[in-house]
Each structure stands twice: as structure tokens, then as C-alpha cells.
Amino acid sequence: MLDHVHNQPSRSTMRLTANALTKRYDEFELSIPDLTVEPGTALGLVGNNGAGKTTFLRLVLDLIRADDGQVRLDGDDVASAFDWKTRTGSYLGPSFLIDFLTPDEYWHFVGQTYDLSEAEVDERLTQFADFYVDEPIGETTKYIRDLSTGNKNKAGLVAALLPAPDLLVFDEPFASLDPRSQIQLKELLQARRGDTTMLVSSHDLGHVTDVSDRIAILEGGEIVRDEPTDPDTLEDLTTYFAEAIRPKETTPADA
Ligand SMILES: Nc1ncnc2c1ncn2[C@@H]1O[C@H](COP(=O)(O)OP(=O)(O)OP(=O)(O)O)[C@@H](O)[C@H]1O
């Protein structure tokens, strides 16, 4: 879609809704009765190992099928519609990568799938030159399979950001990145706030708070808290998880 005043692609971000969403694995059940993420909102997902964060993100991306309910993006059920795929960038981990390609080859391959020309991909990659520093962008020679874990993740994160999608979905995007890259990634995500709907799962409470408008806590497959971020969010989250390992002391009056 073109913005005819500026002859540029017009910005439109995506609304995500989940209704009666259920996914079962043996003893585990993810159950999200009703969730809406408004266009341009960044939703952070936190929760202990096995809480269901990745399962939810995989359902959003139609990588697995729900047992009940659905995820809709701008009203379209992700399990049957296609349009959202060309408007979504995602990176859930190294299994997303094609590891017999170099990062440059991979980024151009991804660019083609989003109908970007070679020149557009090259132009867009310049914004990541300080972020992906293992080898200069445009001159990468190492195959993805030979990269360090952090550099693999950076190659995947660049590929997700490259198409400037309306929806970004990231699972543990800060994992294995060096501190400098973590700060740069935060800046890259913060620059898109308001323009892009984002789902970001992370165990780094500080980073996820910094890049999110809302934080949802998942516990045992359910969203047990979902609140806008504010200056107290990081402390509140830290207290929440600390209390899970050190339950509040009971006072004599409670006994
Ligand atoms: N393909 C599968 N087959 C069986 N069980 C699965 C499968 N995928 C996920 N699970 C189970 O679903 C539950 C939720 O897993 P999930 O990966 O969504 O959690 P998570 O919150 O992302 O955890 P982590 O923080 O460790 O990444 C776990 O009990 C997990 O074992």
C-alpha cells in the first residue's frame, strides 16, 4: 500500500487478538481466553521456564496449531490467512536460519521473500552495520553454521528487522548477545515502538521492561498478570519472581 503524498509504503501496524486459545501437551495446557494487543503496542512476555511463552509465540506464527480458539492478526485467523506473513518479521532461535548460507546470502534470501530488491536490501542493511560486526555487512564469508551463537542470533535478528514489518515476534532476543549488542538491540527495538506491534519474550526483566509498553506474566500456561509498564515495573517484576522462591514471611497474626 502506498502513501500517495510521500510515495512511500504507508505505515500500518497490526492488531493481535487471541480468543479461547488452547494448546495442550501432555500435562501442560496453554490457555489464553482473551488477549488483545493494540496496533503499535510492544507486549513483553515473561515467565519461568516452561510457562508457555514459546508455545504462544509459535501459535501466533502458525508454527503449531491450536487445539481450540485462534490467533487473529488484523482480524485474519493466522491458521488460514496469508497476508500477515508478508507483514511479520520473527526470530525464535537458530532453527529459523539457513545455515549453509552466509549472513549476506541469508538476508538477501529473506529480502526476496518480502519482495525487496537487491538494492533495497543493501540499503536497509546499512542500519545494522554497527550491530552485526562479526564481518562487514556486504562482505560476509563465514557460513551461518560456523558463527558463534551470539552472531547467529544477530544474523537472525537482522533478518527479522530487515523488512520493517508491521509485527515483530522475538523469543529471547537478548540471549547470547554481548552487552554492547544487547544495548544496540534495545535501541533498534525502541526506535520501532509505536510503529510496530511487537511480542518480545525474555528472561531479562530489565531489557524486556525497557522495550515494552505492557508486560504479561505467564505462569503454568496462563497469563496471571498483564499491566502497562511504568517506572516501578522492573522492581515489581523482580519482587514477583523473588517471592516465588522466598514466599512472604508469615507474621504471628497470620498464623
Ligand atoms: N513439541 C512439544 N511436545 C511436548 N511438549 C511440549 C512441546 N513444546 C512445548 N512443550 C511443553 O510445553 C510447555 C511450555 O513450553 P514452552 O517452550 O512454551 O515454555 P517457555 O515459557 O517458552 O519456556 P522457556 O523459558 O524454558 O523457553 C513445557 O512443559 C514444554 O515441555
From TrEMBL:
One of its GO terms (molecular function) is ATP binding. Coiled coil: none annotated. InterPro entries: AAA+_ATPase (IPR003593), ABC_transporter-like_ATP-bd (IPR003439), ABC_Transporter_VariousFunc (IPR051782), P-loop_NTPase (IPR027417). Keywords: ATP-binding, Nucleotide-binding, Transport. Residues 14-245 form the ABC transporter domain. Gene3D superfamilies: P-loop containing nucleotide triphosphate hydrolases. It comes from the Bacteria. SUPFAM superfamilies: P-loop containing nucleoside triphosphate hydrolases. The keyword S-adenosyl-L-methionine does not apply. PANTHER family: ABC TRANSPORTER ATP-BINDING PROTEIN ALBC-RELATED. This is ABC transporter, ATP-binding protein. The lineage of its organism: Bacteria, Pseudomonadati, Rhodothermota, Rhodothermia, Rhodothermales.
